[in-house]
Amino acid sequence: MARILVVDDEIGIRELLSEILYDEGHTIELAENAAQARAARLRSRPDLVLLDIWMPDTDGVSLLKEWSSQGLLDMPVIMMSGHATVDTAVEATRIGAVDFLEKPITLQKLLKAVESGLARPVVSPAMLAAARGEPLVTTPSHETPRPAPAAAPSAPAPKADTNAPAAENDGSMVGGISLDQPLREARDEFERVYFEYHLARENYSMTRVSERTGLERTHLYRKLKQLGIDASARRRNQR
Question: Taking the domains of the chain in order of start, what are their residue ranges?
Fold first, then answer.
């Protein structure tokens, strides 16, 4: 599945799109303005961006131009708006957007646009310029490689019971999670283990868990509630 960045200043739209796309198996990152979108793009390139046009700090078309001029428009971008004109949609497409969704966005149109966008080959600004016979003038990107985070120390493996009969590994278990169950149940089981690990590692600090997992706090609280994890109670029990 894909990593999708949703950029919209309306929290209701961000949460709605996030829930729909999450249910489709995608990893979602949210940004409420252009500044947060820039930071998310610099951390790592998403597989696809859903970008609102009207935002309070910088409009989506200007951000699209900025990414294009800096050589950062190497991922498919789908523009969204409830008030844009045809000229705006044409301009965004000319800059490099792969599609345009008019609000309110229906479920069918959203999923079709996302599927189509992810299926399209990535065309970088350099490739576009070469195709048009134009010189490419870019401003330097401030992206700098960062070392990979150190792996968390693994817990010591339990001692094997030498008297127990050897279990046959038929490949149906991965990390203690059975593959012989519906996808949604297996995913929930994995996510429960994943979030419990990060909660314990960060001493149940929701701020640090939010930063570590890449979920904004509102979405993180909702996800923990969905998985039946009461982080506040566990933190109280530690005191």
Answer: 3-132, 173-238
Residue closest to 223 by CA, chosen among 214, 134, 167, 48: 214
Among 41-55, 69-83, 190-204, which is the least confidently predicted range?
190-204
pTM of the model: 0.56
DSSP code of residue 47: S
* 6-39 pLDDT per residue, tens: 999 999 999 999 999 998 889 999 999 999 999 9
- What is the Cα–Cα distance from 40 to 46, expressed in whole angstroms? 8
Q: Count how many residues are written for the chain.
A: 239
Q: What is the pLDDT of residues 92-113, one digit of tens each?
A: 999 999 999 999 999 999 999 9
What is the CATH architecture of 3-132? 3-Layer(aba) Sandwich (3.40)
CA distances from 131 to 32, 50, 136, 206 (A): 34, 26, 11, 48
Architecture of domain 173-238: Orthogonal Bundle (1.10)
Euclidean distance between CA atoms 18 and 6, whole angstroms: 7
Nearest to 14 by CA among 80, 108, 100, 99: 80
Beta strands 177-178 and 173-174, pairing class: antiparallel
